[in-house]
Amino acid sequence: MKKFLLAIGVIGLIGVYAIFQKHQQEENGPLVLPTAIPTSTSGGQGQPSSTVTPTTGSASGYKDGTYTGPVTDAFYGNVQVQVVISGGKITDVKWLQYPTGGGHTDEVSSQVMPVLTQEVIAKQSAAVDSISGATNTTGAFQQSLQQALQQAKS
Amino acid sequence: MVQDTQLIMGMPITITLSDVHATTDDLTTIFDYFQHIDEQFSPYKETSEVSKINRHDIVPSSYSPEMQEVIHWCRKTQEETFGFFNPWHNNVFDPSGVVKGWAIQRASDKLKEMGLPNHSVDAGGDIALSGHNEKNEDWHIGIKNPFKQDEIIKVLLLTDMGIATSGTYIRGQHIYNPYHPDDTITEIVSLTVLAQNVFEADRFATPAFAMGRKGIEFIQDKEGLEGYMIDSDGVATYSDGFKKYVLEETV
User: Fold this and answer.
1) Cα separation of A144 and B136, whole Å?
2) pLDDT tens, B137-162?
């Protein structure tokens, strides 16, 4: 379970939600990331999607290949992701559809994302030396937070 | 390793020295330096040079060398950000947006001159990283989740670099678009900038944030800068060179 949670850190919560939901529909089984998402039935909204055949397996439980999640209704719009597994690791996450706020969903096109890559943010659990964030000048709160974090490290 | 946090310039400043010969006296030297900067540049202190300038108590020819340097950078940054950085808003001179990163960088330079090349200087989440941490690794720096204060959403491995994050999420709308002052910036919530030093990262982070979604394109196009922008839907957009600093958590 923990391994799985770490894995989703890379993909982004919603991306996993999309795959995970689909996965549960398919197997209703233990929490292992998709072997492949079949192109057959689609529960609920959205279109089922195509899949590249997985090639090699690995110790991580991920098989190499490109996996496309179903179109999933996040509460602010539709989301669809494609995940590339290489060498047992997630090496790329592509957004085929993503919400733009206000309930709209854009098909991803060169007009929307010309160069820059996007991802849904996801919690990371690695230990850090410091944290970068916007300044809070009502200092007491942040000082207490920063000191608590320092204690948590030592 | 020696480390301490003090509240100066209205923000917590944490100095971490990982050289084995570093002492608490070294920390004191740097904290004293920040106090000195605060006395000189605070727009809130009556006795500061900035306040004297705003009261027209002193003429430009008698500005201190530090002030002249800061003003030079204010002008340059205003030009480079197409006016999104404006230290002369409503005829009040407030160079804070440049002073913070400038002071952090000077503190870092001072530590190097003191023979302490392995350190981090973190002032309110804008950080200079030099050399290595206590474990002799590159510094592990988290990016705060703008929606959840006790969470990080990215871990970066940095050495001899600077990082600065601008956002509206803690103080609300304290950053505005100078061309549309009444518009609130709601489409993006956080912009993190990486550069070869914290001064470069810091002086561009806030003006780029004020550009809204265009901010990440500005960072992308600007030589030597990398960025990670988070919008109000929790979707992040990052510049081409950003990913090489990201620590991939093991699967």
Assistant:
1) 28
2) 999 999 999 888 889 999 999 999 99
CB nearest A121 (choices: B187, B234, B249)? B234
| Secondary-structure percent of chain B, ordered helix, strand, coil, rounded to 5 | 35, 30, 35
pTM: 0.68
Taking the C-alpha atoms of residue B66 and residue B88, their distance in angstroms, rounded to an integer, is 18
**Partner-chain contact B144 A133, CB within 8 Å:** yes
Flag if B170 and A134 touch (Cβ within 8 Å).
Answer: yes
CA nearest B242: which of B229, B233, B83?
B229
CA distances in angstroms from B198 to B11, B99, B159, listed in the order given: 16, 11, 11
Q: What is the sign, positive or negative, of the torsion defined by CA atoms of A101, A107, A112, A118?
A: positive
Chain A CB within 8 Å of residue B49 CB: no
- CA nearest neighbour of A83 among A65, A97, A99, A98: A65
What is this model's ipTM? 0.89
Q: Which of A123, A127, A129 is facing B16, going by the closest CB pair?
A: A129
B70 vs A48, B41, B87, CA distance in Å?
58, 10, 11
- Which residues does A67 contact at the CB level (< 8 Å), separation at least 6? A19, A34, A36, A37, A51, A52, A82, A83, A84, A85
CB half-sphere exposure, B165, CA atoms < 13 A: 31
Contact at 8 Å (CB) between A103 and A77?
Answer: yes
Task: Closest CB to B151: pick one of A117, A123, A130.
Answer: A123
Distance of CA A99 to the CA centre of its chain: 14
> A-chain residues within 8 Å CB-CB of B133?
129
Compute the distance between CA of residue A135 and CA of residue B178 in angstroms, rounded to an integer. 20
